[in-house]
Design brief:
single chain
Length: 262
């Protein structure tokens, strides 16, 4: 079977999974990971959840780590023109041949299990990053956090971006309910860096951190990112020197917050 699947066939197979509705839960992902050899175990993950800014934070973090010499995987969604954009290693998309090979390996263990598009894509990312022995694997949640397919990892750090009302039919009504779902990525003792500014969301995240004995670093309290009058980015830890001199490629004051979070 190896090598028999073309990229077009692999992409079409994955695309065909979009017919299956959103299915929150981790059972299918965990079961398939086990049959793939548990590639998520020991993977050095930086896990990102939130309503707004996940892509900007992930892309900035990936650039920082790659520039610093770390072999960095970045899994994001959605893609703009090609599914390969979701899977990046040191800034480069997965090759067509490698993508097809990964899909074949996933198909080989499916049996009668039927993953959704996002579950399958997540499995492909975890398998690829493990095989590439990345120094850092940046994972964006697809929706929510607690029951998102990416929430099968033991991360090094959790990053929570701004939180607002989204997907209420799946995540619950109101900011507190949504924040509770997104804070579900927080694991015991794992540091959390957060740029949420809604008081309800921050309260929920702080509670979750206390329950998990996880240190919380909060934008506006522990660090601040701003754009100066000259347009340069400035990073201010609450105790320490101001660091500036960077020009952000992404426009908008909110991108200063996203960059500080990264």
């Amino acid at each position: 079977m190896s090598g028999s699947l073309s990229f077009a066939q692999a992409a079409a197979w994955l695309d065909g999974l979009q017919q299956f509705t959103i299915k929150l839960g981790l059972d299918t992902t965990r079961s398939l990971l086990a049959d793939l050899g548990s590639p998520e175990r020991g993977l050095p993950v930086l896990h990102i959840a939130g309503t707004n800014g996940k892509g900007s934070v992930g892309a900035t973090l990936a650039t920082i780590l790659t520039t610093a010499g770390y072999r960095t995987g970045f899994y994001s969604s959605p893609h703009l023109s090609c599914v390969r954009e979701r899977f990046r290693l040191d800034g480069a998309c997965i090759s067509e041949a490698r993508f097809a090979s990964m899909v074949e390996r996933l198909q080989a263990v499916l049996g009668d299990r039927q993953p959704t598009y996002f579950e399958a894509a997540t499995l492909l990312a975890l398998l690829w990053f493990a095989e590439e022995q990345v120094d850092a694997a940046i994972l964006e949640t697809g929706m929510g956090g607690r029951l998102d397919a990416t929430n099968v990892v033991s991360p090094l750090v959790c990053l929570l971006t701004d939180i607002s009302r989204d997907h209420e039919q799946h995540l619950g009504t109101g900011i507190a309910a949504i924040a509770r779902e997104k804070a579900g990525i927080i694991k015991e003792g794992v540091p959390v860096v957060c740029s949420a500014n809604d008081p309800e969301a921050v309260a929920v995240i702080a509670t979750r951190c206390r329950e998990c004995a996880s240190p919380l670093f909060l934008h506006g309290r522990d660090f601040v990112g701003t754009l100066e009058e000259d347009g340069l980015f400035a990073y201010r830890p609450i105790s320490g020197p101001v660091r500036t001199g960077l020009t952000l490629r992404l426009a908008g004051a909110h991108q200063a917050v996203n960059t500080a979070l990264a």
